[in-house]
Amino acid sequence: DQNVSADLTNARLDIPWAGWSKGAGVPANVTFVMTKSGDTTTLSDFDLDGKTFSVDGSIVLVNGALSSARFSKVTLNRGDDVAVSVKRSGKGYAVDISGNALDARSLIKQFTSDVDTATKTTGSDAISVSADVDRLTGFHDEQLSNLKLDYSAAGSRVNGLKVSATASSGAAISISNTTGAGRRALNMQSADAGAILRFLNIYEHMEGGVITLALAGPSDGSLKGKVDTSNFFVVNEPKLASIVSTTPAGDNRSLNQAVKGKLDTSRVKFERGYAEIDKGSGYLKLANGVLRGPRIGTTFQGTLYDQNNNMDMTGTFMPVYGLNRIFGELPIVGALLGNGRDRGLIGVTY
Prior knowledge:
Mean pLDDT: 85
Shape: elongated
Helix content: 10-25%
Radius of gyration: 25 Å
Strand content: over 45%
Number of helices: 7
Order of helices and strands: EEEEEEEEEHHEEEEEHEEEHHEEEEHHE
Largest sheet: 20 strands, mixed
Structural class: mainly beta
Distance between the termini: 72 Å
């Protein structure tokens, strides 16, 4: 047996599937007892320690490559409290995670990025992950409980994903990604749309709502489908406040002035939000989008972002939506003035 200790301050450490890394210059030390037997090297009493992270357990190497590892306590971010086991499985690895708490923000950032970015960070090894964690922390202080996850991937390609969890409101959340016959389908349902969008750092100004996302496409191509949300609030959205207070080109009044200051955008109820989605590498396009509420509504379409991070969106914003919609519901008047079910009388094109 050989006792080993090393200063890893100048080394870079990466755990690609966990979305975690330690940069060069970040203080860290490792100690372990090394035992060799033929082609097998065992690192027992393994202790990796840094200011905000620690990993304790044992590692088995065969011919210098990782064969298995058992870590009784893993803390990659403050607040983490999980045990992790890793086993060689064919040409990849099987990972099992269980415990009380896990900070998922690094993982979320990695796996909600585009394919090109994910490829650089996840590597090419096949990996399967099974997780059972009591409390999962995401963005905007949002937490999910009772997480059950099964995930498999080869490099950046997700072969399978099944997630179930409970939002802090008690609403159920389910996410699935299935593949087969060269096709891929991504589905998400939740009775608390605001919670899951905050957790994933997609949108922070929504409260409540029932959301359904359904996308499908070739395994190596863009995903197309729709997102449908009902009965939610948009709270303190700066862009919404800006739209109603800005005077449009060719007019001398803002929308808020036109309706005598009756548009309070601090908390706006919407009955429905809908859009058709085309999501590919580096871009997200929306079509036939509509937000419909009793006081405010808008239609929208265009490119939310492209590979150069540019936006090109157009639409029509309509205050006093409930009143306008009455005209849209009347067959003759609606045909002449309403311009379709989701268009109103008082509006501004953007």
